[in-house]
Amino acid sequence: MTLGHGDGGTRGAGYNADCIFCRIAAGELPADVVASDERFVAFSDVHPVAPVHVLIVPRAHVVSLDETDGLPDDTRAAMLPFVAAVARKTGVARSGYRVIANTGPDSGQEVMHLHWHLLGGRRLGGMA
Ligand code: AMP
Description:
This protein is an alpha+beta fold and 128 residues long. It has a single domain (20-120), classed as 2-Layer Sandwich (HIT family, subunit A), CATH 3.30.428.10. It contains 2 helices and 5 strands; from the N terminus they run αβββαββ. It has a 5-stranded antiparallel beta sheet. The longest helix is centred in the middle third of the chain and has 17 residues, at 73-89. Bound molecules: adenosine monophosphate. Residues 20, 31, 43, 45-47, 55, 102, 108-111 line the site of adenosine monophosphate (AMP).
């Protein structure tokens, strides 16, 4: 997979002007974009908890993993390959990484636009 870099913007399906990740994906809010293609944007988390802490979002607005029925089949199919490609691009594929999608209240999800946290660059310790 070839990833673009930092092109910012197109508004995805279901674009919501009140959603910060919709606005980042559209290039309307600044972000440190590390990879993008026509379906997804990956950008650095503003409060990193690891040397590599990237958020990966679909351009289309869905709230969480619980709503991926609202995404086109090709976007669902491309999601995890894109995450893996970002891991390679950010240099953590060999050293290892963790992928998290906080989903719903018990997870502490704060931003209501589906996103994957890609964490790596140090030993991440326990939990899962
Ligand atoms: P979650 O708890 O899974 O919803 O995580 C949301 C994440 O988004 C947090 O780790 C925040 O630090 C991050 N975040 C919030 N606003 C921004 C932003 N404008 N740019 C980059 N990361 C952000």
